[in-house]
Amino acid sequence: MAQPDELRRLRLRRLRHSATVQRMAEDESPDAADSAWQSKLDALLLLELVDTVFPGTQDRTATSGHSLAETGDSQGLAVKPSIDVIVEFAARPSTVQRGALASLGVLLPLQGTVRGRFVAATIPAAVVRDLASLSCVRHIRRQTSRSTS
Amino acid sequence: MTESKADPMLLAAMLMAEPPAAPPVPAPAGAEGGIEPTLIAADLLRSASHMGLVTVSVDSPKPARAVVFIESEQMADVEAIAARHPAMEINAGTGPVRTAIVPLDVLPELTEHDAVRRVQLSRRLKPSLDRASATTKLLAFRVAHGTLTGKGVLIGIIDTGVDPHHPAFGNRILRIWDQTLPGPGVPEGGYGVELTGPMIQVSRDTEGHGTHVGGISAGNDPLFGGVAPEAELVYVKTTFQDAHIADGLRYLARVAKSLKRPIVINMSLGGHFDAHDGTDMLSMVVDSLPKTGCVVCIAAGNEGDDAIHAAGSVQPAKQLAVPFVVTANRAGVLLNGWYDGNQAFEVMISAPFKSTPWFGPGPGAAKFTLPDGVVTIAAAAPDPANGDRQVVVRIDPPVGRAITAGHWRLRIRAVGQSTGRFDVWMLDLTDGPGEPPVFAAPTAEDSMKVGSPGAASNAITVASYATRVAWRSQVGDVSVNAPIDMISSFSSEGPRRDAAKKPDVAAPGQLIISARSADAQFMPKLCIDAAHVVMQGTSMACPFVTGLAALLLQQNPKLTATQVKKRLIDACAQPDGSKRVFDPKWGYGLIDASAIVI
Predict the structure, then answer these.
(1) CA–CA separation, B247 vs B249, rounded Å?
(2) Strand order, beta sheet including B345-350
(3) What is the pLDDT of residue B41?
(4) Checking CA distances to B94, which of B124, B203, B255, B435 falls within 20 to 30 Å?
(5) Of the candidates B479, B483, B447, B477, the residue with the CA atom closest to the CA atom of residue B465
(6) C-alpha distances in angstroms, A38 versus A35, A49, B335, B340?
């Protein structure tokens, strides 16, 4: 359960992100500072953030890549899904970096390592920006599903 | 004889039993068209054997008795007939369906019995891989290398699980990592449960796909045997999330290393969220597996008949329009587009009634609510893996309404002097029946439909070939209207987006009979019996090659994946017989097992 301070922080972040994305959509000239972290995300993850981080979220259609785990609170905020991602680090994450991640509420690995510096994790959509802003993080992709053929 | 009670094959058998009108006259030796009498006899023997006729000899090639099913009233007394004919044997005295061995000259009397409804000649069922084995000359390979059965080799299968009770697998399932169950996981991932020993018996395959795949690669079954019937199996029952599949690959590689065994990993699965160039994460994990004694076989995909790919050229001051048709009752549509990361493109969606503004080149995302649907566009910065840019468009239903069915367009235009090719794949997010959305002319292309992980460079990617169009199910004879001895139309075409050659080889995958999971539901017309079922797809072609690779690793466990792939490709041929020639649909052609160099 999210704590009140954390909820205020998340609300502020959502408002900030909302302004950013609206500006991007209207002016087609994304702010350089905001695009820096966004440049570390793949398009499928960016797509998810439109629905999960920013206000105006509508009823969602469940698609692949969503964890069953969800985050939310009891004070009226909409329940936001967590997202299954694969985080690529510039190098294998160090203990210090894992500590920094833990302070953001991101525990790695949550679902096992994929390969060396690639780590699969389930993270709240609200912390994607903070995660992408870390210098040790090179790229973040949304996990996708496969089907039998 | 009451002919209405006799099935056509029984009537044919009666004809066979009739003495010839005149004795055959042997043609002079060396004369054109001459047939040796012994060949006639041998042919009769072969026919008789297939048709359930018995007591036939070369000296007297006239069949004397037949194995039959007798459908009759529950308590019908046909024993009286048997009592009059000592050569007649009835295996069950009562019941609506009985089996018997009947002298052919008694058949008229049997069919005229009031209580007998129908007499049917017994058929010898053919093994699932009979046609596949003949077409690929697997039997010739076995004759030449009879000791190769896959013994000592592990086959790892990442799929829907397995029916551990199926007799085709015996005690050869060593471990199952069930990722779908809650539990402590394994070193490669802290989720799911690893089942070993007696616990393997609790596992279930409610989809039936993984069981069928296992039967083709390693089933040991007198009728429907697999390619490597003595290989041992390790399963990953997966969630189908790509990260979990990747963990499953590493798990299988570790298990093989700990057991000091070579391993062939089968992945009859795929998707189209990726760049179709082998640079996605899952493909990279495939390519990072041990080089020696570890081979990965992957299905090419079943989108050969589906217009899921479109492409075109974007030029300065000249936009590209990619038309697509959204069909009724779609829960969601996703377009996955890719282009050169050194270029900058913008995109927009023209729906039947309204259009979005231009958006791009990113990075960023925006949502546009149109009367036709809610359109979300996300454009990413160049992907570090391949340097290319990805643009994703998702169309969701507006609140309280369906997505407008009809003709839509994805439009792409260059920013400044950017130019280049734009490729896009369609994903239907609907979990249910109905026609999927498709791209339309002129940009729809039958190419580049091998997605992740089949696009992985080191994998052996398998296309499907048709060896069967009919089978006898529990509810009767079934046939499909499709070409035979031809590449399956549904088999996905290559090459990759970077022009690398995929798929690699073709193998039988259309209408294959193999192991049936007792916990899965199938249409009755697909069920051969309680233990076997018909399925088709590149999913079925892939384990055929997996089995062949296991035989090669049994012969030489030190072979690298590249060496195994080369030996299989060298044994392939196109329909015109040409070798080492690549075709985007066939790969390097159909495998001829007898041509594999051990």
Answers:
(1) 5
(2) B345-350, B406-414, B320-326, B438-439
(3) 29
(4) B124
(5) B483
(6) 5, 10, 20, 19
Q: Cβ of A29 under 8 Å from any chain B Cβ?
A: no
Q: Judge whether B119 is closer than 8 Å to chain A, CB to CB.
A: no
| B491 in Cβ contact with B304 (< 8 Å) | yes
Cβ within 8 Å of residue A12, ≥6 positions away: none
Distance (Å) from the alpha carbon of A5 to chain B's nearest alpha carbon:
28
- Shortest CB distance from A141 goes to which of B189, B281, B537? B281
Q: Taking Cα atoms as reference points, which of B484, B353, B506, B338 lies closest to residue B424?
A: B338
Which residues lie closer than 8 Å to B16 by C-beta, 6 or more apart?
B44, B47, B48, B53, B62, B63
Chain B nearest C-alpha distance from A145 (Å):
4
Query: Between A50, A56, A115, which is nearest B378 by CB?
Result: A50
Taking an 8 Å cut-off on Cβ atoms, the answer to whether A145 and B241 are in contact is yes
Mean pLDDT of chain B: 86
DSSP B375-415: EEEEEPPPPTTTS-EEEEEEEEPPTTSPPPPEEEEEEEEES
> In this complex, do B300 and A109 lie within 8 Å of one another by their Cβ atoms?
no
Do residues B331 and B430 touch, judged by C-beta distance below 8 A? yes
**Residue in the block written with tokens 């000359």:** B137
Q: What φ, ψ does residue A127 adopt, rounded to 5°?
A: -105, 5
The predicted model scores a pTM of 0.77
Longest dimension (CA), chain B: 97
Which chain A residues have a beta carbon less than 8 Å from that of B397?
Answer: 61
Instruction: Using CA coordinates, name the residue in chain A closest to B209.
Output: A148
Query: Is the distance from CB of B532 to CB of B514 less than 8 angstroms?
Result: yes
Q: Do B376 and A51 touch (CB under 8 A)?
A: yes
pLDDT at B21 > cutoff 50: no
Cα B422 to Cα B346: distance, rounded to the nearest angstrom: 11
Please tell me the distance from the alpha carbon of residue B200 to that of residue B256, in angstroms, as a whole number. Answer: 18
- Contact B274/A at CB under 8 A: yes
Is the ipTM of this structure higher than 0.90?
no
Strands A80-89 and A137-142: antiparallel
Token digits for B295? 């081979």
How many other CB atoms sit within 10 Å of the CB of residue B27? Answer: 12
B67 in contact with chain A, both atoms CB, cutoff 8 A:
no
Ramachandran assignment for A61, one of left (phi > 0), alpha (psi -120 to 50 degrees), beta (any other)? beta
Interchain CB contact of B287 with A (< 8 Å): no
- Each residue of A15-45: pLDDT tens digit? 444 444 343 333 334 444 556 888 999 999 9
How many percent of chain A have pLDDT more than 70?
A: 48
Query: What residues of chain B lie within 8 A of the CB of A84, using their CB?
Result: 241, 243
Residue entry with tokens 């793949």: A42
The 10 Å Cβ neighbour count of residue A58 is 13
Per-residue three-class SS string for B476-518: EEEECCCCCCEECCCCCCCCCCCCCCCCCEEEEEECEEEECCC
